[in-house]
Hints:
Elements: E1 2-8, E2 11-17, E3 26-35, E4 40-49, E5 60-65, E6 70-74, E7 91-93, E8 104-106, E9 110-114, E10 123-127, E11 133-138, E12 141-146, H1 156-159, E13 162-166, E14 171-176
Antiparallel strand pairs: 1-2, 2-3, 3-4, 5-14, 6-9, 6-11, 7-10, 8-9, 10-13, 11-12, 13-14
Amino acid sequence: MNNKFEFYNNLFNYLLTQDTEKMIGMQKEIEIKLDSEKNNVAILHRVINRILWDVEIPPWALKVMNLKGRAIVPQEPYKSREESLTPIRLLVLWGYTNIDDHRWIWGKKYIQLKQDPNAKTRQKLGILNTHGWVAYYLNGELFIKRCKYNPKAIYTDFGVNIEIYTDSDIVGVETLGEF
Length: 179
């Protein structure tokens, strides 16, 4: 793995570059930019094709969060039946997901998934999120993970760009790039 540190204009840059995977010819990079004057971190995930032919592969950026917090995903604005007869949100559930589990909070504005160290099952949801963010709340602090939404893009996992997951150890806050 090749690592490169830079510091300029009150920005700290850190680039992690994985060696090219010999079997598939892909190289992964993570670029981290810390702004010393703002409470802001930018993380850019790249997948670089090092073979001779085109390959479509979307990046999947997983952030593993600490115990006892909650993931928060915004929903599309609620509309009454009189206002709209068309679907406005795409939700994808994994086979092991129980929407009646006590860790889910289903609200008009947000879907929340709480982490419980005593829980025996896993939960996971994917959503096509046009707002371009997912958050994690713990002990009075809010971590917001932003991602770009492209209405013309094709996303993996039945068309979702945000996924949240929990088990007894973690909460996963995941963003999926486009094909």
